[in-house]
């Protein structure tokens, strides 16, 4: 036995003292020697061994810890008739949710618009309204019309500070915002300060003792001629520990989030048919299942819908139905969800959303661009709303309640859709946008958007550090 241990240690470049060798006897010597190798030791003393034994003894065995926040999943929730009243109800609920967040701000003494209209000239008033109209006066000032459940009023935002005015110009219709004002007249207030609902700095206490990775991918587009089949297969092989490179990280992946557009779909954009390799939607999902069914059983896989998937295009989107993913629905480690969806993974609140409503943000906000999708994600969090402007580049349907306001503060916000990966932090929230597995389409060529391909974004849930594993082959 001693001979085997010594031989094993020497092969790893370690020299054991006699006492150290005795301590290793009857124990899992291979595991201890592996740990010592990582610590760059050459001569191993008894205290080195005792230290590792102590750490191992205190280390609890890792157990996965996650659940889905069903209350925010729209799948199987009641549809409305889509009447004017249903839309009114949706907007009223959005106003209520977001105004309650703004009311918690210090030094904000909220009064209703009808109360503000009764105040005398120059009086300070704090109101919360949904932006109904936005235009510029002859003098270049911004004039907003806002309403709340009690009344409507006009607000003037003076063009005095250029930088501040730039931000104010980016107020979108339908945003719910707090305004600190002075009364100018019965029908008009002058704005001194604007307050978006926004998210606070949330401090999270990390309880993980071992490295656990959450992997993010999206926009696989199986069925397209442009699907990067070889690279995607290589990614699946890596997850299944068949590739040596970074195998220690692959082993620690316990969660995989797929941010929508898992197949290319049929008839999603003009002339898509010419770019399809599989022209039957069921067969596209069948092939997708073949890849995903190979994934290690100890990885929890969350799949949300995207605009190319076989679900309603309008937000919020329900989960892809069992008709298309029969075999994945039978697996316990697969979670097929709508967009948006929420889950709590290792105590982190995770918001998953494909990303369609961001196109309105790219169109209206100067600093938000498709090759930096995290900039749009930040604007969404500031507004606490996945429906920042109704009907702008994306449609919404009223269902039994509003699933698009961001009622809680996410620790991790995950999206896809633009086929361009990004990562940054806003306050303490991780913003992760997935890369894609589809070469540039004709549509992307037309609009001059270059996708980033075949990358896996990996967030270490213990250290909160993000790394990118690249599967791109030229
Ligand atoms: Fe996509």
Keywords:
alpha/beta, Purple Acid Phosphatase, chain A, domain 2, 3 domains, six-stranded mixed beta sheet, 19 strands, 27% helix, globular, binds fe (ii) ion
Overview of the molecule:
This protein is an alpha/beta fold and 474 residues long. The chain folds into three domains: 2-58, no CATH class; 66-78 and 203-470, Purple Acid Phosphatase, chain A, domain 2, CATH 3.60.21.50; 105-195, Nucleic acid-binding proteins (OB fold (Dihydrolipoamide Acetyltransferase, E2P), Beta Barrel). The chain contains 14 helices and 19 strands. The chain has a six-stranded mixed beta sheet with strand order 3-13-14-15-17-16, with helices on one face. Strand 16 (422-426) and strand 17 (429-433) form a beta hairpin. The chain is globular and about 95 Å long. The mean pLDDT is 91. Bound molecules: fe (ii) ion. Fe (ii) ion (FE2) binds at residues 219, 261, 306, 308, 417, 419.
Q: Report the average pLDDT across residues.
A: 91
What is the CATH fold-level name of the largest domain?
Answer: Purple Acid Phosphatase, chain A, domain 2
Give the radius of gyration: 27 Å
CATH architecture of the largest domain: 4-Layer Sandwich
Low-pLDDT runs of 5+ residues are: none
Roughly what fraction of the amino acids lie in strands? 15-25%
Q: Describe the biggest sheet?
A: 6 strands, mixed
Question: What is the rounded distance between the termini?
Answer: 50 Å
Number of domains: 3
The strand order across the widest sheet is 3-13-14-15-17-16
What is the CATH class designation of the largest domain?
Alpha Beta
Shape: globular
Tell me the helix content: 25-40%
Structural class: alpha/beta
């Amino acid at each position: 036995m001693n001979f085997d241990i010594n031989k094993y240690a020497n092969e790893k470049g370690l020299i054991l003292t006699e006492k150290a060798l005795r301590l290793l006897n009857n124990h899992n010597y291979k595991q201890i020697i592996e740990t010592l190798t990582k610590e760059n030791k050459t001569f191993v003393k008894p205290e080195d061994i005792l230290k590792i034994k102590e750490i191992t003894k205190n280390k609890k065995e890792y157990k996965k810890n996650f659940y889905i926040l069903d209350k925010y999943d729209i799948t199987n929730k009641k549809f409305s008739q889509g009447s004017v009243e249903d839309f009114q109800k949706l907007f009223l609920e959005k106003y209520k949710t977001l105004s309650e967040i703004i009311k918690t701000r210090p030094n904000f003494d909220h009064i209703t618009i009808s109360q503000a209209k009764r105040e005398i000239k120059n009086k300070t008033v704090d109101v919360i309204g949904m932006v109904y109209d936005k235009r510029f006066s002859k003098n270049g000032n911004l004039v907003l019309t806002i309403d709340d459940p009690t009344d409507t009023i006009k607000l003037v935002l003076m063009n005095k500070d250029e930088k501040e005015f730039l931000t104010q110009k980016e107020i979108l219709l339908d945003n719910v915002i707090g305004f600190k004002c002075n009364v100018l007249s019965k029908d008009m207030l002058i704005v001194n300060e604007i307050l978006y609902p926004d998210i606070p700095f949330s401090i999270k206490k990390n309880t993980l003792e071992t490295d656990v990775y959450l992997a993010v991918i999206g926009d696989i587009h199986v069925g397209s001629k442009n699907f990067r089949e070889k690279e995607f297969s290589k990614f699946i092989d890596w997850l299944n520990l068949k590739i040596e490179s970074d195998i220690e990280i692959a082993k620690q992946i316990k969660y995989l989030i797929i941010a929508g557009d898992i197949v290319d779909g049929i008839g999603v954009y003009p002339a898509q048919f010419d770019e399809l390799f599989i022209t039957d939607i069921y067969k596209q999902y069948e092939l997708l299942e073949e890849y995903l069914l190979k994934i290690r059983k100890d990885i929890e896989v969350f799949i949300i819908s995207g605009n190319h998937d076989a679900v309603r295009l309008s937000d919020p989107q329900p989960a892809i139905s069992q008709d298309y993913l029969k075999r994945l629905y039978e697996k316990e480690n697969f979670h097929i969800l709508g967009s948006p969806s929420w889950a709590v993974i290792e105590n982190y609140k995770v918001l998953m959303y494909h990303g369609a409503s961001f196109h309105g943000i790219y169109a209206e906000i100067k600093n938000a661009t498709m090759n930096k999708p995290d900039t749009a994600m930040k604007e969404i969090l500031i507004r606490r709303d996945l429906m920042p402007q109704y009907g702008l580049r994306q449609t919404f349907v009223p269902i039994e309640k509003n699933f698009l306001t961001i009622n809680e503060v996410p620790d991790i916000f995950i999206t896809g859709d633009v086929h361009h990966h990004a990562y940054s932090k806003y306050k303490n929230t991780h913003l992760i946008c997935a890369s894609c597995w589809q070469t540039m389409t004709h549509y992307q060529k037309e609009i001059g958007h270059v996708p980033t391909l075949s990358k896996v974004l990996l967030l270490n849930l213990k250290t909160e550090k993000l790394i990118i594993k690249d599967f791109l082959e030229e």
